[in-house]
Amino acid sequence: MKALRRFTVRAQLPSALAPLQTLATNLRWTWHTPTQDLFATLDPDAWERAGHDPVRLLGEISSTRFGELAKDADTVVTVRELADDLGSYLQEPRWYQLEREDDPSLPAAVGYFSMEFGVSEVLPNYSGGLGVLAGDHLKAASDLGVPLIGVGLLYRSGYFRQSLSLDGWQLEHYPVLDPQGLPLQLLADADGAPVLVEVAMPRGRVLKARVWQATVGRVPLLLLDSDIEENEPDLRGVTDRLYGGDQDHRIKQEILVGIGGVRAVRAFCALTGHPAPEVFHTNEGHAGYLGLERIRELHERDGLSFDEAVAAVRAGTVFTTHTPVPAGIDRFPLDLVRHYFSDEMLPGVPMDRVLALGAEENPNMFNMAHMGLRLAQRANGVSQLHGAVSRGMFGALWAGFDRDEVPIGSVTNGVHGATWEAREVTALLGDCGPAANHMQRDPVSDEMLWELRGALRARLVSEVRRRVREAWLQRGASLPELSWTDHVFDPDVLTVGFARRVPTYKRLTLMLRDKDRLRDLLLDPHRPVQLVVAGKSHPADDGGKALIQEIVRFADDPAVRHRIVFLPDYDMSMARYLYWGCDVWLNNPLRPLEACGTSGMKSALNGGLNLSIRDGWWDEFYDGANGWAIPTADGIEDPLRRDDLEANALYELLATQVAPAFYERVDGVPPRWVELVRHTLTTLRPQVQASRMVREYVEDWYAPAARAAARISGDDFRPARELAAYRSRLNASWPQVEITGVDASGLPDTPEVGAEMTVRASVQLAGLAPGDVTVEAVIGRVGETDDLADSVTVAMEHVGLAEGMGERFESVVKLPHAGLTGYTVRVLPSHPLLASSAELAKIVLPG
Ligand SMILES: *Cc1c(COP(=O)(O)O)cnc(C)c1O
């Protein structure tokens, strides 16, 4: 008999074991090995049956077993000690609290909005890198004591689970998750009634959502869920799947996470007394509608006009873009936005102003990234290279500015060490996270490092065998045919990993470019390579599925199947083994389309060596001694030829550099390899930590945003009103602002570096005051095109009226370089509440 419905009943724990409930539901256990060990020992069989999920485990353990455990003094003491440890982790002042003593302007709370969160496989609410990054951000924030509130959606089926058909085609499954069986708690009011967030929909309908709270150490994560009886059937489906529907489905999800998300935060803070966020961080553009909801709030509560509210919202918003290609940007047809946005949904927020926030080149589209940039005073990409790419990609929004002046910075992503580092690494090298104890440790010998790598590789090999067997059973094979899977992979063979989502730019099949050559590498009698591949293709992307099939078919060949495997259903639970055990982490994207990439960082944490195109994070972190850079054929236009060149370079590197370093042994240890591993662990391991990333966000982004938000909202929002009035004056006058004359004097006949000249300009200000603008002299090198390079800017002083030509400005400028030199003058807006003079995208140049 099959059950008609299923639901989860939580266990009644004996009082001596009651703290297990908190230990299981606070997701801190996911990065706290002593707590994991406790769960594993309560009932090892049940732990396996529960798939290493503590909430399920507590449901699996029989009451008899609980009775025994409650009488076992060791267990009871361990439970109490771990509960106390968690208690102090949650209470004690951490880095942020100490910082805030010195700098009270640090925000009391930050709202962190993301479409996906990959905290753990027990809460499968993510599809890939973006979600896992968000999860790592929350965990590192928790470790540092940063008062974040995460906000997202709870998907009934998460992302899909992947399996393979017999002929290697990706199949998708959508198991339904019961929130009661997840580490979640329903947000309820004092009377126990679930909080319902409401957002008005067209034709008088209302989209409602309840709010589940996950607890990630110290950080609450609020997840909105529309699958409730109070909703009409089609609206129940809004949170059915991640990245699963059409544009209409998608915009409803984004409305819910953005607008509903702010409402959920308000309800959460009101009920729990948690301080309200002073800064809002949107992780990618999806949740950008949160800015519109905050405009509505400011309009209703404080009587601000739309422009005044925009000024206030911008001050406290940080926008992180993750997309280096225009095609990857989230956009909606204008009519769809018009359909949903109404005075019922956002009273007092005028539609035409909303539409203008998302305006882009195509007048019929609404661009979420453009809205993100217009509603955030601070914006960043996720690696240095991606910052530069973003400045180019969005440069049109700052027409007239040089690319490097576009106000988009960068924070290079990081990964949560305690989550992704094998416990053996931490045991050998010590903690590397924010709680690192920098005591001198015993030196680690080459033998110890090599042994460590061998142990991690061996564990990967048995996991690969287990998963290959499982995969073949799912594909329809029977056990007796599968004895060969016991000999898949070899714990002593150089192991290369390649696992990621399968969009075209990641080039899953580059390694298959020359199949004979790959086969030779795999089957080399002296220096073989084994290759583990994994990744999911978006369900709608048949091209991606065809690439997977190509790999699977190659790997199915009995001649090579012991040396190359494709493992279906890449997720966090598999990824961990790969990052631990692979000797080499391969990444061959089309540069510069990888915004950052984080899987290579997770490999590096464990002493894995990266073999990668210099893209994303590897462009800034490759140092010649921590792995290998695959030369990129960036300038080659023909994509096939480019693939050929880069694949060729990859085979070359594997055959002539990687394999020899791995197999050349002195007393059983490969000295060159171990040197690379040691260097990686010493230099990369500290730098790729998510704690480094979160500190950068706090210091360089959240803190300035909090200060700006406080300044602009002080004195009953007078500064916001002033800034809005300034912008409006600027908009009216700017088209008439004109540089009417420029000259320079004072240079000797044969000037040398450092010689001084006086630059003078007259500027017609069209009604603006001299203090409303900055006039700058710009001096730098020029080539044949007269484009200034390596330029220096010097603010010019207002020195009076220029008869009939406006205002006079002048300054003394020192010649910065030898060689052909040029200069010009420009006018920019100036206001104390602007974060940079490029912010408003206004510039006047001569003539
Ligand atoms: C880290 C991680 C990713 C992201 O890896 P990239 O290098 O950005 O492709 C994707 N999926 C899982 C499960 C991860 O752990």
From TrEMBL:
Its cofactor is pyridoxal 5'-phosphate. Its EC number is 2.4.1.1. It catalyses: [(1->4)-alpha-D-glucosyl](n) + phosphate = [(1->4)-alpha-D-glucosyl](n-1) + alpha-D-glucose 1-phosphate. It holds the Pfam family Phosphorylase. PROSITE patterns: PHOSPHORYLASE. Residues 13-123 form the DUF3417 domain. PANTHER family: GLYCOGEN PHOSPHORYLASE. Phosphorylase is an important allosteric enzyme in carbohydrate metabolism. Enzymes from different sources differ in their regulatory mechanisms and in their natural substrates. However, all known phosphorylases share catalytic and structural properties. This is glycogen phosphorylase. The lineage of its organism: Bacteria, Bacillati, Actinomycetota, Actinomycetes, Pseudonocardiales.
